[in-house]
Amino acid sequence: MSNTVRVFQVDAFTTRRFAGNPAAVVLEADGLDEAGMRLLMRELHHGDAAFVLAPDSADHDLRVRFFTPHGETAFIGHATVAVHTVFAALGLSPRPRQKQRSGIVEISTTPQDERPPLIGIRQTAPPLGRRLEPGEIGALLEAVGLPVSALDERVPPLIAGAGSTRALLALRSGAQLGELRPDLPRLAQLSAALGAAGHFFFSLRPTAEGCDTEARMFCPALGIDEDPVSGNAHGMLGTYLVQLGLLAVQGGRAHFIGAQGQHMGRPGRVAITLEVDTTRTRYVQISGSGVIIFETQVSI
Asked: Residue 255: which domain range?
């Protein structure tokens, strides 16, 4: 007996087709076992996927299992945006409490006139780890072909996040992001040495319009040469900028918009809102829109 599921391909963190970060959404996946999910992922090897399941207790409204081409993972931000973009497009009721291996996150869906709705993911602020040593910084910059003079001295490089960590490095100008020439095998080696699964290069002086920061991210240790748009990394960035006093905080909140993906031909935007207690960020909301590219049915 086969199980037939509805599969949607969605571009997240964008309002344009063929931009942002792509993800597959598999609805009503309760009939699939893990082997079936992995078979489907093998066919969808070009990106990430979210398998939507019924809740299994009263403290949440849906469950999601996330897979990358390399296996199951605890949480994927852009795939979460994709899931709730599909719900909104189908006219389904919002499901604000989403459970996955990493715990429960709060989801909001905000209509936007003629544009796709804005999907917000609210979660506790990510931890900030250690600052990088001069030798480690030099090795990372050498691996992308930049001199140490390219760094923005206001933002000391550090490692952020828990579980899926990122090295954050600030450049003086967004134009320097176009000059990066990543040595991917070397960056993968440095991930193991530094304890950072990915490397997030950003600038507070963006060249892209309509944003406050501009970024690129390389995660070859995870099998991702370059990530088009990362919501989680922008949440880490916002938490760090608040700590450094580089984001204005009014009424206990700070906001910024990050651009990523334009160097891959997949431009996207991430809106970040931080809930701040004095200089400590308590919660981060990562927001973005999504666009459905196609829908199909698959029998497994």
From this structure: 128-288
